[in-house]
Recover the amino acids of this structure.
């Protein structure tokens, strides 16, 4: 007797549909933090504060001083396929915001206790809070004063999806992932002031500053002094392709590929084509089995890169991959050519 096969077709209730979609983007607390920080950046925030408890499993709160959400839009903010960032397919092709799918808040709020408080006005007594309730996830909006900007509070992630909750690791591991997500965002926007707090303690407090010295201070504070001491600054532009950032010298290679940051138009990506170009460029200067460190920024025309490849947007597709690959390889190869490890350091043990 196959109940599933003989059952009538019906439309899933919104909460269940969102919970299924959440499977793709809300892997763990770090993924929630990433989505909330990206929303704050998209809202043009100058200050972003992240507060977490128990590795994010108990609480993830992101507060920003961005544009805020108008009262009339509050009810839509938590519903699926609702976004202020694109309207047409043309917009999608040239999209420059980090978000555009209109799914994150709906997904997250279907698997946690989420409340969003926001104020789009300069009056600090104004503001509203929205939650999505029941199987229908009906928006419930109440007045709640908030300074201009937005706070999103996510409590008890996966409390209603035990299968997912089982995959949560220790508090330490989850926080390590969350901190890594924070690093990536903080390395993508130097003009924003960032703080990260965990269980009431400040873990990172990063003042804003776009000058080269301020950028190096931030990198040192996030990745360690040795990173910046053993890195070389690179800047190169060919046509519409621009590469800048810090490439680690072979003297500071690592046993693991754990300090490799590559941003395309401000979005951190793990891309095979990029990884290959970098590996090739380091091939002659790095010992086998060692991994380079780098913080690199590639800026291209948004029209020549497709960011809608995967729901988490960790992958991108370049229209002309060959050109991008060759540009990266030649830029890095030139920069590294005179840094053979045998010329500057003892081989690593
Ligand atoms: P997306 O970012 O893909 O548009 P989200 O579900 O992450 O989808 O957010 C839905 C909408 O809610 C956004 O398009 C934006 O209009 C609004 N929003 C979310 N977070 C913020 C924020 N921190 N500040 C201002 N608006 C926000
Ligand atoms: Mg978003």
């Amino acid at each position: 007797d196959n109940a599933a096969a003989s059952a009538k077709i019906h439309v899933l209730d919104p909460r269940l549909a969102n919970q299924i979609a959440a499977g793709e983007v809300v892997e763990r607390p770090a993924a929630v933090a990433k989505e909330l920080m990206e929303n704050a950046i998209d809202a043009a925030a100058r200050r972003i504060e992240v507060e977490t408890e128990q590795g994010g499993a108990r609480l993830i709160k992101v507060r920003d001083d961005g544009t805020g959400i108008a009262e009339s839009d509050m009810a839509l903010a938590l519903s699926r396929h609702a976004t202020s960032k694109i309207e047409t397919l043309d917009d999608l092709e040239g999209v420059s915001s980090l978000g555009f799918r209109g799914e994150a808040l709906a997904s997250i709020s279907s698997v946690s206790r989420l409340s969003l408080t926001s104020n789009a006005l300069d009056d600090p007594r104004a503001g509203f809070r929205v939650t999505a309730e029941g199987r229908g996830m009906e928006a419930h909006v109440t007045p709640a004063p908030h300074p201009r900007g937005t706070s999103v509070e996510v409590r008890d992630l996966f409390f209603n999806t035990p299968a997912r909750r089982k995959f949560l690791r220790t508090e330490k591991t989850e926080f390590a992932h969350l901190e890594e997500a924070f690093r990536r965002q903080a390395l993508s926007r130097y003009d924003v002031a960032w703080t990260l707090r965990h269980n009431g303690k400040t873990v990172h407090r990063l003042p804003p500053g776009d000058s080269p010295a301020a950028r190096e201070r931030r990198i040192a504070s996030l990745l360690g002094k040795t990173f910046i001491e053993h890195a070389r600054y690179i800047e190169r532009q060919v046509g519409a392709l621009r590469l800048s950032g810090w490439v680690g010298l072979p003297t500071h290679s690592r046993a693991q590929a754990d300090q490799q940051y590559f941003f395309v138009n401000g979005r951190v990506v793990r891309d095979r084509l990029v990884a290959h170009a970098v590996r090739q460029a380091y091939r002659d200067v790095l010992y086998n089995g060692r991994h380079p460190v780098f913080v690199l920024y590639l800026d291209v025309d948004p029209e020549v890169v497709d960011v809608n490849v995967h729901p988490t947007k960790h992958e991108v597709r370049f229209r002309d991959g060959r050109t991008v690959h060759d540009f990266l390889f030649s830029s890095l190869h030139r920069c590294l050519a005179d840094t053979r490890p045998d010329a500057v350091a003892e081989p690593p043990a």
User: Anything to note?
Assistant: Residues 35, 39-40, 43, 64, 66-69, 77, 83-85, 99-106, 150 surround adenosine-5'-diphosphate (ligand 1) (CB under 6 Å). Residues 343-347 have pLDDT under 50 and may be disordered. The domain at 222-344 is CATH 3.30.230.10 (Ribosomal Protein S5; domain 2). The chain has two domains: 14-206, 222-344.
